[in-house]
Amino acid sequence: MCARAKNKGLVWTAVLIQCAGAVWAQSPGADAINAAKIAAVCANCHGDNGISPYPHIPNLAGQNPRYLLTQMNHFASGQRRNEFMEGMIRALKPRERESLARFYAEQTVPPRSPASPALLAQGKDYYEKVCFRCHGADGRGTEDYARLAGQQTGYVQRTLTRYRDPANMVRKNPLMIEATAQLTDAQIQALAAYVASMP
Ligand code: HEC
Ligand code: HEC
Question: What is the Cβ-side half-sphere exposure of residue 63, based on CA atoms within 13 angstroms?
């Protein structure tokens, strides 16, 4: 059973890809794509309805559809590096990527449980100086800029560190490299806690 594939590592990856293949093979055609069915495979990591149960895996729920599609295409082209996601998204047709982006954008995401008030205040302070310009005062982003509100703390922290230290080549975006260049680890921690707490 696909839903029961809980083994870790390569075996798990292989099972997931097999399951994904089975789901896609059942699709009667491009016009009858059932995004929710494909999403059952994604749910193994991104959670039911795109609300991730893992701190280092992003929520997809409530994310801007164009941002989601852009990131899927970045995985497919290798511009954004993650071995598993690259293979996963390459196996999806463009129409399937689009319908998945729409599906996830329509899901709602609950805010995380709040961190300490001092940490949140520090994060808010920095957010309102720099980040709001692109991601919006409410953290909901725009068509092109990611929604940050309610995002997983561990994922945001790791992602900001990656932009700041671009030598790791996981994500390359000049705007984010610039926005994070001056951040200390403590500021990154505070920012991650703050955006996760945004409704
Ligand atoms: C084996 C676990 C796993 C599965 C299954 C999986 N993902 Fe992912 N996905 C990840 C991880 C881990 C990341 C974060 C990569 C990083 O750190 O940059 C990610 C990132 C993403 C992102 C980028 C989100 C953002 O905020 O930038 C999108 C979009 C995405 N996945 C879509 C999907 C879709 C659609 C599916 C199903 C077809 C899927 N994923 C299945 C593990 C998974
Ligand atoms: C000049 C515009 C701009 C500013 C200012 C900016 N960002 Fe971004 N941000 C972007 C863009 C564009 C992306 C998508 C980049 C990509 O494709 O990797 C992004 C992506 C992100 C992501 C990844 C989201 C995801 O789901 O993977 C995080 C986290 C983030 N920004 C946080 C911040 C924080 C925190 C600040 C303030 C320190 C900030 N950004 C300031 C434009 C901006």
Answer: 27
